[in-house]
Amino acid sequence: MTTIARTHLYLVAVAMAFVFLHLPAMAQEIPLQLADPSGKPAVSDPPVKVYILSGQSNMVGIGQVNGGFSRWSDFSDLTVSVYQGTYSATTDYDQSTPIKTKDLPEYGGVNPTPFPGGGVQVVRGWMNIKDAGLFRFKPGYQASTFCIMELDGVEVYRREVGKDPFYNDFKTSAGKKYSFKLTFLTAAADGLGWFGRIDVPGTLHTVVHNDGKFPHLVDDAGNWTVRNDVWYKGVVTATANKWLTVGCGSGSHTIGPELQFGHIMGDYHDEPVIILKASQGNRSLGWDILPPGSERFTHEGRTYAGYNDSIPSWTEEDPGKEVDWYAGKQYDDFVRETHAVLDNFSTHFPQYKDQGFEIAGFVWWQGHKDGNAAHASRYEVNLVHYIRSIRAEFKAPEAPLVIATIGFSGWEMAGPHVTVANAQLAVSGETGKYPEFSGNVLTVETRDFWKDAAISPRNQGFHYNQNAETYMLVGDSLGNGMVQLLKGRINRN
After folding, report:
1. Same-domain pairing of 280 and 395
2. Contact status, residue 124 vs residue 181, Cβ threshold 8 Å
3. What is the pLDDT along the chain (493 residues), one digit of tens a residue?
4. Domain annotation covers residue 351
């Protein structure tokens, strides 16, 4: 554990305790802080535990890892000086005489001024940075990444041939101009480069490195930890295929609930764990993910599609129009792509070919697109049908299933989305409304995890303002809820 992690242990414990207050009784027995991944592989005899995660874009994962990197720009008075020979670490190029010098009027754009070549190339000038914050710099592209960058006389980047890059993140002041120097170590040199602010509130980097939360995500060197007992594979979207670590969301710089959920399940099981995620953004349960056998229904005089209908809704006066889609197509796509993996298990997971697998549980996080009056009114019926259908489809009739409510705007959420959240809570086994779900279906509340845009990377409410802490807390709640079901501690009615 890092020194920073130890320093903030108390804060982590307080935050986790708050989460557990919203789980069923005895959840406090789950450790408040997860252990650092040990690096030891899971046992190799029992079947692999497979968890199937589904939903729309927030299950895909939109939590930002950092502030994002942009092509750098806004330089002034740049020149490149060329020095005789090849790069030498013992040569002081500031005190040497160049064999030629060239102005670089275009630098950092899509068409930077070409470099002259013919020796060791050193760029000098000024870089203007508009925003205050902690920035990381990534100069060069491919072969030109072998270089040393200095800003205001401070080395902020170094990559020697045959070695990984070293970053020294730099704190900037708003609107300040900094002296800029870039020394290329090989003949490859150009004006390409990227930079990004890494202390943006609500990004995973800020939450972990600055706020000291979720210390199990970083090792002693500050790198993201990688579990070698939990494998992640995404189908349809979020298609990373690797040992569980950061970057299994919509892209390499995003996360979803799978990250914390996978850590919890990896800690819980001695057996290997596979997180298999089938998800797609902008999809409703009332239309796109409608399970087979779902019947048409009427709301306020309008008939809405049942499974396999290609007209979303209609009345006698307005017959509607067929669309290039059908009710339930996304459900079918989820199921087909998941089966394609599981039916070829040894091909996709050769490391587990002798172990086999079992469906250990399901996770569901969806609901935004059902935030209209008609689909919201039907959400509970559709969700019950979904639970029964997905269990039957994968021949896991009693596999535990955990649902996360939608939590847009936190406890200020209003309108049909409240109807959706209430429907999600209604199917939870402990309510007794559906006796067949007692002890095997659990809904966890997420509205406490909402973070305002002011403390988040984006102002984008339907994606929880892309706040990584929210996605981690949802994953934490889902994981601990799953453990409670597996331990059989939810009261049966």
Report:
1. yes
2. yes
3. 443 343 333 333 434 443 433 443 333 344 446 767 766 666 767 899 999 999 999 999 999 999 888 999 999 999 999 999 999 999 999 999 999 999 999 998 888 899 999 999 999 999 999 999 999 999 999 999 999 999 999 999 999 999 999 999 999 999 999 999 999 999 999 999 999 999 999 999 999 999 999 999 999 988 999 999 999 999 999 999 999 999 999 999 999 999 999 999 999 999 999 999 999 999 999 999 999 999 999 999 999 999 999 999 999 999 999 999 999 999 999 999 999 999 999 999 999 999 999 999 999 999 999 999 999 999 999 999 999 999 999 999 999 999 999 999 999 999 999 999 999 999 999 999 999 999 999 999 999 999 999 999 999 999 999 999 999 999 999 999 999 999 996 543 3
4. yes
Measured between alpha carbons, how far is residue 90 from residues 64, 121, 345 in Å?
Answer: 41, 15, 55
**CATH code, 458:** 3.40.50.1110
- Give the CATH number for residue 162: 2.60.120
Range of the domain at 149: 70-197
- The answer to whether the CB of 451 falls within 8 A of the CB of 469 is yes
Pairing relationship of beta strands 254-255 and 63-64 according to DSSP bridges: antiparallel
29 found inside a domain:
yes
Distance, CA of 128 to CA of 179 (rounded, Å): 9
Q: Is residue 206 part of a domain?
A: yes
Q: Is the pTM for the entire model greater than 0.85?
A: no
In the chain, the number of structural domains is 2
- 459 phi, psi to nearest 5 deg: -100, 85
Last residue of a domain, one of 163, 197, 231: 197
373: left (phi over 0), alpha (psi -120 to 50) or beta: alpha
3-state secondary structure of 122: strand
Q: State how far the Cα of 259 lies from the Cα of 226, in Å rounded to an integer.
A: 10
